[in-house]
UniProtKB/TrEMBL annotation:
<dbReference type="GO" id="GO:0045087">
    <property type="term" value="P:innate immune response"/>
</dbReference>
<dbReference type="InterPro" id="IPR040161">
    <property type="entry name" value="FB224"/>
</dbReference>
<dbReference type="Pfam" id="PF01827">
    <property type="entry name" value="FTH"/>
</dbReference>
<protein>
    <submittedName>
        <fullName>F-box domain-containing protein</fullName>
    </submittedName>
</protein>
<dbReference type="InterPro" id="IPR001810">
    <property type="entry name" value="F-box_dom"/>
</dbReference>
<dbReference type="InterPro" id="IPR002900">
    <property type="entry name" value="DUF38/FTH_CAE_spp"/>
</dbReference>
<feature type="domain" description="F-box">
    <location>
        <begin position="1"/>
        <end position="50"/>
    </location>
</feature>
Amino acid sequence: MDLLTELPTIALDLILKNVDWKDIISLRKVNFTIRNYMEDVVPTANLTSISITVASDNISCEFSDTKVEYRKHLDGCLVVCSKIPLILRNLDFVTACRADLAVIFRHSRIEELNLYFTYFTDEMFSVKDENLDPIIDRFLWNFNDIKVTTLHIESLGAEHVLRILPHLEPKTLETLRIWYQKYHYRRREEIPGFETDEIVELDQWKQAKTLSLRPYRLNCGLMHFGHVSGGFIYVDRVNPKDLFYLKENFIKNPEFDYFHIEYDQFDNYNELLSVFGPSDDRDDLQRAEWYYNDRKFRFVIENFNDISFHMVSR
């Protein structure tokens, strides 16, 4: 590998333009000369997706057809990204992973970034790993200007979302999906709250076109969703005047497609009628529909716990 470091700069640049991210991550492990050289000359690339799973003793990164694992090891960090695992001595797995991801984030625009945290040690999501939180805090710390189109994050609350969201480039973020990790095992009465006070003030939130938070109970007003073109949320209660505000904003939005709201309580159905007027289509109070803009826009309420807005022509 000494021959590689002796190549002219032009030759090294040409080589790097034709390697994939798996090779780049491997080359960064060769020596300090190669690693430092690659910090600035890695070619800009667009990645379809990166899926990162963080556990208390390892971090797994998958992108394209490549998977790289960073595992806790007695001598440091065990990196598995090829047939021959590599031990990075005196370097912990979080630091090693962050260093590689920093290069990828700096030189790439990522279509979809998926973040998963292995909070539980059993398949029934009942035994929590108490060692995970400090690992997540270290892993998410101080990434900057990550160019991501879609962020999908599965967590147990707003805390870890707030650690990564401010570091995404607002101009490139279009879709934000925040899911409760126990989503598939929850009962309606077990749906947790989600503190949105800080998140709704972020530029990343305000500029996202699609917002889906499921199945968290949100503590913010519906006015914080008037700018979106699509999404899904769960709230404790809805107010007819807030729904009217959404309707007015959605109709004016040329990119609007759909927005879905699940809720527990409706404040006042008579007030809804006074705000929206008589429904255009009604089925024994189980379903009511209102149409606007020559029936191109539809507002639907079903079973008193399900509301949707649709641009019918799409």
